[in-house]
Amino acid sequence: MTAPVRNRTKNRPPHYAPSSRRPQAPALPAPPEPQGFAATWKADVRAGLVVFLVALPLCLGVALASGAPLMSGVVTGVVGGLVVSRLSGSQLMVSGPAAGLTAIVLAAITELGSFQAFLAAVVLAGLLQLVLGWARAGIIAYYFPSSVIKGMLAAIGLILILKQIPYALGSGIEVFESASFRVTGGGNTFTELARAPGSLHAGAFGLSVLSLLVLVAWDRPALAKAKRLVPGALVAVLLGVGGNALFALAVPALTIPATGLVNLPVPEGVGALGEYLTFPDWSAFTRPAVYTVAVTVALVASIETLLSLEATDKLDPHKRTTPANRELLAQGIGNTVCGLVGGLPMTGVIVRSSANIDAGGKTRWASFFHGALLATAVLSVPALLNRIPLATLAAVLIYTGYKLANPRLFADAYRIGWKHLVPFAVTVVAILLTDLLVGIGIGVAVAGAFILVNNYRTAYFLHREESADHHRVRITLSEDVSFLNKASILRLVNELPEHSVVTIDGTRSEHIDTDVVEILREFEQRAPLKHIALRLVGIPDLPLVQSHH
Q1: Where a domain ends, among 354, 370, 398?
Q2: Is residue 92 part of a domain?
């Protein structure tokens, strides 16, 4: 549902000028995929540590916003890391409690009358996701345009920044990771931001600024070696803990109070952990409302997961493609386990996945390590974790949000064209003013309007010719190739046989959607890995766009 690319020179807009009129950057092949645990474990351990530092406050914050026990958020983070990461086909996506579900969970707990009854609905939701995976419903992810997905990434980045600024100032707001514009008790995100400076805490503000400076410096080329040895987020957290301890000794007025620190429940030994878990109320299955909640949670969690999955694949430096149906199965098992042991419903989450990629995660072991660290921290050092200032963690999240909402992303949307820019901008604004799911729905509706206008003439999108031995394939695109053809084209190129000679001819096409061009150009980079000799004829180049990550 992005802007169609005109394929004839006389109609081609300036930013899609032929290479003879405007030099194009050479397409760089994707880096080779990591090979073996022995080759990646160091990078995955480092990335898992960073994701753990990001995930801990988010797990607690989502539980608070959902009106659920604090430990329920941590339980979901542990299950997402230890269970779902091993079942998922994604090498980089991290699963856990999601901010986009907080409103649904809060309303469901209120409606059902208890968290235990809600857990029964979570078990059912997980089973429904298994059915969706077996029914191969994962293809729905391919029908969300890249303009909306990129808008979602940018909006989540802006939400992270806006929601964490009060914590960075040391004032705090009621909901730590709410994606909602309105906040409980009246007002909205911007009114809370306006009130935050009035209760600024000098010590917390100083530590957050110091943490941000460390994170920015750690990304400089001069510190590349240090970054490989120690994650910048870990350095920021250690400085935050040490700085607050120094304040307590030397400048008591700057010491951050307990309300400005992580507040994790402290079980008295491993044997007492069961006291912090909650189990389903199976008698709730006799109530029709439980089934309504289960269907709602299953559908919403599946859509959020599939959107995060496609966004994560776009950020993957190795250009790996994740099977969506397998992801639904993994999420279904994860949510079933969460319901059984007292966890919130989970989804794939782009914030933690982006932090994983940014920290250099290579394989699914990074997510596994983050889950193991969550479990270990809760069991062994909860008192130590409760010394971490929220201001320091807010700085980590603000920096992650900046990378998701990098100004270059907005410039790229403008450069591609207004039919890409409008759905992108509408998605960003709608998510900021409503919530994640409503905003995505509005963005898809706007992008759909462009598709209906530009593709009403489309009858067929390609013609395929294949040699008798299936090793010489010619694919001719029709006059108008829309975003609606994205899923079919992606499936087609992924199913092309190895050691084949393939020609994709777009010379007859008047319009080729930007999303389709992106798929073909990405496949051009991956084709040599499958020993496919690929020739693209009449397929436009993408504009000189910076990588989102």
Answers
A1: 398
A2: yes
Domain contains 386 = yes
- Give the pLDDT confidence of 26-53 residue by residue, as tens digits: 444 556 666 677 888 889 998 999 899 8
Question: Which residues face 476 on adjacent strands?
Answer: 463, 505
* pTM of the model as a whole: 0.65
Maximum C-alpha span of the chain: 82
- CA 177, distance to chain mean position in Å, is 14
Percentages (nearest 5) of helix, strand, coil residues in the chain: 65, 5, 30
**Which domain covers residue 495, as residue numbers?**
459-537
Tens-digit pLDDT profile for residues 202-222:
898 899 999 999 989 888 888
Pair 154, 284 in one domain: yes
Q: Specify the DSSP class assigned to residue 187.
A: -
As a whole number of Å, the end-to-end CA separation of the chain is: 22
Cα–Cα nearest to 475, from 448, 456, 495:
495
Residues 379 and 483 in one domain: no
Q: Which CATH number belongs to the domain containing residue 508 in this structure?
A: 3.30.750.24
CB proximity list for 465: less than 8 A, separation 6 or greater: 473, 474, 475, 476
SS3 (DSSP) at 90: coil
Residue 532, sorted as left (phi over 0), alpha (psi -120 to 50) or beta, turns out to be beta
